[in-house]
UniProtKB/TrEMBL annotation, chain A:
GO MF annotation list: cytochrome-c oxidase activity; heme binding; metal ion binding
Protein's name in the database: Cytochrome c oxidase subunit 1
Metabolic or biological pathway, per its Swiss-Prot or TrEMBL entry: Energy metabolism; oxidative phosphorylation
Enzyme class: translocase
Family: Belongs to the heme-copper respiratory oxidase family.
EC number, UniProt record: 7.1.1.9
Entry's Gene Ontology cellular component terms: plasma membrane; respiratory chain complex IV
Organism encoding this protein: Alishewanella jeotgali KCTC 22429
From TrEMBL, chain B:
Residues spanning the membrane: 16-36, 48-69, 89-110, 117-135, 155-176, 188-208, 228-253, 273-291
PANTHER family reported in the protein's UniProt record: CYTOCHROME C OXIDASE SUBUNIT 3 (PTHR11403:SF7), CYTOCHROME C OXIDASE SUBUNIT III (PTHR11403)
Topology of the protein relative to the lipid bilayer: Multi-pass membrane protein
Entry's Gene Ontology molecular function annotations: cytochrome-c oxidase activity
Organism: Alishewanella jeotgali KCTC 22429
SUPFAM superfamilies for this protein: Cytochrome c oxidase subunit III-like
Family designation: Belongs to the cytochrome c oxidase subunit 3 family.
Cellular localization per UniProt: Cell membrane; Membrane
Domain named Heme-copper oxidase subunit III family profile: residues: 4-292
Statement: the UniProt record of this protein carries the keyword rRNA-binding: no
Protein name: cytochrome-c oxidase
Biological processes, Gene Ontology terms: aerobic electron transport chain
Length: 528, 292
């Protein structure tokens, strides 16, 4: 058991990998842990995705066809929880694990054992969440935002399981974030100064800070839900002196920075990919760093824009409206810089670049609809309609998820040592691009026309658009099977990848061979 | 081990993380079922699973820390490792601060906004007039809009004594630290012991205060927003004092075994930081929960 006894043999063979199941259960290697995070995120992406398919199936036609309303509610809830905490966040953490030590010239993550712990908590947390669906009375059905009193007075028995599973997810996220932040702070190779760090490292540094600040607040929120439901407290009950709106304040104080937790690493990925395929250095590196930091600061001052219809005083709504709009400025800086990077570049359009380009366009659409939602009086109309669903799926699916897919294509050759199948990849891209817009774009229209979200039935005039949306949804789901095929094919073999992989790629991770050796930097490289 | 270990020590494989994950699974799944069964007044496996999870967690912590202490004592850790540990601990404390912020935030909101609005402030005149016209918006909220009555906990009795105890314990811990730095092992041992003793006294008095609140004041967890914030804030603080005292207890055992040098004593430092942190939380708590 003692780590010391193994140390001697370890010294001799840098690429010695432990074998069998123990390699994965007991590992302290950032690459193994990164791989596990990524595979887990992919699995969760499909589980959460199949729940979305159930939702779209039911909404294909008006009226009730396939599922009970209560089960529909469970599907919308668990779909959201799984996609946020099980797919997008672990995927980014997996990328951080794989890439950050390589990018900054570190031998591994700063706290390797804790790294493994924070991964292995996740499968168990989601096991609890999924098992709660099979409890008598069903699983959580109050939306992923678990607003009180839906989650307190009106929730079903299994709510305690939801609460504790969120608790341990939070523990996992906090430990993961501490690991990232300490690695970046303390483990950079000599010469890797702050303003030389790749933007993916910068964005993750700021993301980790956000995680440490807000995940404990989420823990507080679920704790209050637990005591309100089971122990007779009245945090969210006006009869006892509390206030249901208090829940929304606490939740969104976590929830809005959480939104940036799911997009800042995406900015980092796109800022890595665009320069590579434009064969030009990133335009405005320093402004990118400052923009990321200002988004992070602003993210703590905008939470109540989710709550414009709760009857807040006018002064408060104005404050949150202006702060929200202010975020468009640093975000605009980023979009401008990406476009300026491509200006007069020698561009090629491999799959990672295609997804990154789609990211810029579609994320910007999501950003603009976000600006529309930020306008308080307009939000009174948009609130709780499909317009909101369209908005956050544009930033989360064609934003965060597209960036994760782009990152996977970009770094797959570095991970596996083989090039992926470019033709299949392009097929995957075009199928995803077309279907994602079929899926989410019409949601703007039905939303503006007043179709409420999270309801299993709808008025007849929305029927055509919804049929259209559902077809888009099924196509998008099927398109992702191509992605799995590409990954499996690439892992099994193919054209050998060079160390640099991409002609225009720069950075430490492209100086080590592909696949990257099990222990990358035994002694730190010198960064000039 | 031919060369000196200035290179960063990456531990070989370790079974403890997965054991810890299983422990957390048992704790979360067990606690969930325990709470559900309790609310339905039935018995099930939840409580046992929770206890099993806690036992595995203790087993894991013992094994993991034994590994880490062995590695540390055999000189595998460089000063860079030491910085990693220190930064990790600091960020952990930041996350703990934010956990308390959630409850302090609830307290401020409930007291400054929700209570006033229930009393008709801002644009809520009709809410007040129609729903609970008899409600008096005064803090401490000893009578809820729904009519539950209780009594407030006075600040200038036991709570003030407890504040003094914790503040003194922070000072004694500081002297223990200076003792360690100046290699005065006697001062280190004595002051650390006094700190621990004060922590235990604090916890006992806190327990006594809870009994007094429940039995004599009728101040219960479910007696409205005042009771909610009182018990969750002081309760989570008490749990943190317990954890801090446990850390200091094991640090004390290591001191008795002759561990730690004036230069290298991360575990001591981490325990001390944690202790000062719970102390600061208590001072905020004393003002916002008891005095104001």
């Amino acid at each position: 058991m003692s780590a010391i006894t193994h140390e001697h043999e370890h010294d001799h063979d840098h690429d010695h990998k432990p074998t069998g199941i123990k390699r994965w259960l007991f590992t302290t290697n950032h690459k193994d842990i990164g791989t596990m995070y990524l595979v887990f995120a992919l699995l969760m992406f499909f589980i959460g995705g199949s729940m979305a398919m159930v939702i779209r199936l039911e909404l294909f036609q008006p009226g009730m066809q396939f599922v009970e309303p209560q089960f529909f509610n469970q599907m919308t809830t668990v779909h959201g929880l799984i996609m946020v905490f099980g797919a997008v966040m672990p995927a980014f953490t997996g990328l951080a694990n794989w890439m950050i030590p390589m990018m900054i010239g570190a031998p591994d993550m700063a706290l390797p054992r804790m790294n493994n712990w924070s991964f292995w908590i996740l499968p168990f947390a989601f096991l609890i969440l999924l098992l709660s669906l099979f409890m008598p009375g069903g699983g959580p059905d109050f939306g992923w935002t678990f607003y009180a009193p839906l989650s307190t007075t009106y929730s079903n028995d299994s709510t305690a399981l939801f609460v504790f599973s969120v608790h341990i997810m939070g523990i996992s996220s906090i430990m993961g974030a501490i690991n990232v932040i300490v690695t970046i702070w303390n483990m950079r190779a000599p010469g890797m100064t702050w303003m030389k760090m790749p933007l993916f490292v910068w964005t993750w540094f700021i993301t980790a800070f956000l995680l440490i600040m807000v995940m404990p607040v989420l823990a507080g929120a679920v704790t209050m839900v637990l005591t309100d439901k089971y122990f007779g407290t009245s945090f969210f009950d006006a009869a006892g002196g509390g206030d249901p709106v208090l829940f929304q304040h606490i939740f969104w104080f976590f929830g809005h920075p959480e939104v940036y937790i799911m997009i800042l690493p995406a900015f980092g990925i796109v800022s890595a990919i665009i320069p590579t395929f434009a064969r030009k250095p990133l335009f405005g590196y320093a402004s990118m760093v400052y923009a990321t930091a200002s988004i992070a600061v602003l993210s703590f001052l905008v939470w109540a824009h989710h709550m414009f219809t709760t009857g807040m005083p006018v002064f408060a709504t104005l404050f949150f409206m202006y702060c929200t709009m202010l975020i468009a400025v640093p975000t605009g800086v980023k979009v401008f810089n990406w476009v300026a990077t491509m200006w007069r570049g020698a561009m090629t359009f491999e799959v990672p670049m295609m997804f990154a380009l789609a990211f810029i366009v579609l994320f910007t659409i999501g950003g603009f609809s976000g600006l529309m939602l930020a306008i308080t009086p307009a939000d009174f109309q948009y609130h709780d309609t499909y317009f909101v669903v369209a908005h956050f799926h544009y930033v989360l699916v064609s934003g965060a998820v597209f960036s994760i897919i782009a990152a996977a294509y970009y770094w797959l050759p570095k991970w596996t040592g083989y090039m992926y199948d470019e033709r299949l990849g392009q097929l995957h891209f075009w199928c995803s691009l077309i279907s994602v817009n079929l899926l989410f774009f019409p949601m703007h229209f039905v939303g503006l026309a007043g179709m409420p979200r999270r309801i299993p039935d709808y008025a007849l005039q929305f029927a055509d658009f919804n049929a259209f949306i559902s077809v888009g949804g099924f196509l998008f789901g099927l398109s992702q099977l191509i992605f799995v095929w590409v990954i499996v094919k690439c892992a099994r073999g193919g054209e050998k990848a060079t160390a640099q992989v991409w002609e225009g790629a720069e950075g430490l991770e492209w100086q080590v061979p592909s696949p990257a050796p099990y222990h990358t930097f035994d002694t730190p490289p010198e960064v000039k | 081990m031919s060369k000196t270990y200035e290179k960063y020590y990456v531990p070989a494989q370790s079974p403890w993380p997965i054991v810890g994950a299983v422990a957390l699974f048992c704790i979360a799944f067990g606690a969930g079922h325990y709470v559900i069964d309790m609310s339905k007044q039935q018995t099930g496996f939840g409580g046992w699973l929770l206890l099993l999870g806690l036992a595995i967690l203790v087993f894991m912590l013992v094994g993991w820390f034994r590994n880490v202490i062995d590695e540390s004592m055999s000189g595998l850790y460089s000063s860079q490792m030491d910085r990693s540990f220190r930064q990790g601990m600091s960020w952990f404390i930041v996350s703990e601060v934010m956990f308390f912020m959630a409850f302090f935030g609830a307290l401020f909101y409930g007291r400054v906004i929700a209570m006033e609005w229930l009393g008709g402030a801002s644009n809520n005149a009709m809410t007040f007039a129609i729903l609970w016209p008899d409600f008096q918006p005064v803090w401490p909220l000893v009578k809820t809009p729904g009519g539950i009555e209780t009594q407030a906990m006075p600040a200038w009795g036991l709570p003030a004594i407890n504040t003094a105890i914790l503040l003194i314990s922070s000072v004694t811990l500081h002297f223990a630290h200076t003792g360690l730095e100046q290699n005065k092992r006697g001062q280190l041992k004595g002051m650390l012991f006094v700190t621990l003793l004060l922590g235990v006294i604090f916890l006992c008095l806190q327990g006594y205060e809870y009994v007094h609140a429940y039995r004599d004041l009728g101040l219960r967890l479910d007696s409205g927003f005042y009771g909610n914030t009182f018990y969750l804030l002081t309760g989570f603080h008490g749990l943190h004092v317990t954890l801090g005292a446990l850390i200091l207890f094991f640090v004390f055992l290591r001191v008795l075994k002759g561990h730690f040098t004036p230069e290298k004593h991360f575990a001591f430092q981490a325990g001390a930081w944690y202790w000062h942190f719970v102390d600061v939380v208590w001072v905020c708590l004393f003002f916002f929960v008891y005095v104001l």
